[in-house]
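Whiteboard transcription, Tuesday session. T.W. wrote the structure tokens on the left side:
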């Protein structure tokens, strides 16, 4: 039997409806949640993501703003802008779209954003808060979205063997943090993992976030496992009018014949990232209200 699809578009819609209700309640108390996204440069994929974030904010009734800066913007200017946004009481969430141009140190940018406005959950203060289970921390949006997808798909995490493929600061590491908090037994695999396929085959739940197109094949997946594909890769495809197609880190056709549940790409984890960003922004706007 082919795997059941976990529909990220439908779950994201539920989360966004909840966010819109919470936003309305805040507006009635005189606070309109505000998210400012900063985009430095003209990376086409980043431009698409940033437009989607602004549109989603506005649809939820929030103040969604995008500040676009030229790729040549000096780091000092970007940091000074962040200082102004930190001080602006109408801005509750600040997100600087990554990657930033090479002359800018991403860590300096992350450290400059006030932890209370860091709706990306990248600041070390939030990383630490989430790691020790302090409720005030903001969890990064993609792993937080994966947890909601698992919950809504009725997948029990407690006590399960979960393999996280990838150890990035944006997905792999915070994913571990959230899974451990949910009482999973977690293994992280990466480029140095020995006999990676056999480790991955031990997973009851597999989270693939390594950025390698169709890396996970059917022989690496335990029959009945739940597979969450975080990857979004462009691969050349002459049969497609655009000349490319999108695929995940999982070979979907093969793996969906073995897994019990699987997320598609697109339409799986992707839509959840934006929904969780809106949720974090509402939480940021709620801070300080009684
Ligand atoms: N680039 C890709 N994903 C993200 C994200 O979640 N946040 C930011 N700031 N940049 C990204």
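and on the right, the sequence the group agreed on:
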């Amino acid at each position: 039997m082919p795997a059941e699809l976990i529909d990220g578009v439908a779950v994201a819609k539920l989360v966004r409806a909840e966010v819109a209700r919470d936003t309305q309640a805040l507006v009635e108390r005189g606070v309109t949640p505000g998210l400012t996204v900063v985009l430095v440069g003209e990376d086409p994929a980043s431009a698409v993501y940033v437009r989607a974030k602004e549109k989603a904010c506005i649809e939820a009734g929030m103040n969604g703003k995008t500040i676009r800066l030229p790729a040549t913007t000096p780091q000092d200017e970007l940091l000074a802008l962040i200082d102004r946004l930190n001080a602006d009481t109408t801005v509750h969430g600040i997100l600087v779209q990554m990657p930033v141009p090479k002359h800018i140190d991403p860590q300096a940018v992350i450290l400059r954003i006030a932890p209370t406005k860091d709706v990306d959950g990248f600041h070390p203060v939030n990383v630490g808060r989430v790691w020790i289970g302090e409720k005030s921390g903001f969890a990064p949006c993609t792993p937080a979205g994966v947890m909601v997808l698992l919950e809504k798909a009725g997948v029990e995490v407690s006590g399960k063997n979960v393999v996280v493929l990838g150890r990035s600061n944006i997905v792999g590491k915070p994913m571990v943090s959230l899974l451990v908090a949910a009482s999973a037994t977690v293994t992280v695999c990466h480029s140095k993992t020995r006999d990676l396929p056999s480790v991955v085959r031990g997973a009851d739940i597999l989270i693939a976030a390594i950025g390698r197109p169709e890396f996970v094949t059917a022989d690496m997946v335990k029959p009945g496992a739940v597979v969450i594909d975080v990857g979004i890769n462009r691969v050349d495809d002459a049969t497609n009018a655009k000349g490319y197609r999108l695929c995940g880190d999982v070979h979907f056709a093969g793996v969906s014949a073995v897994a019990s549940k699987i997320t598609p790409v697109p339409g799986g984890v992707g839509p959840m990232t934006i929904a969780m960003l809106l949720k974090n922004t509402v939480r940021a706007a709620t801070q300080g209200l009684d």
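Someone added at the bottom: The longest helix spans residues 8-28.
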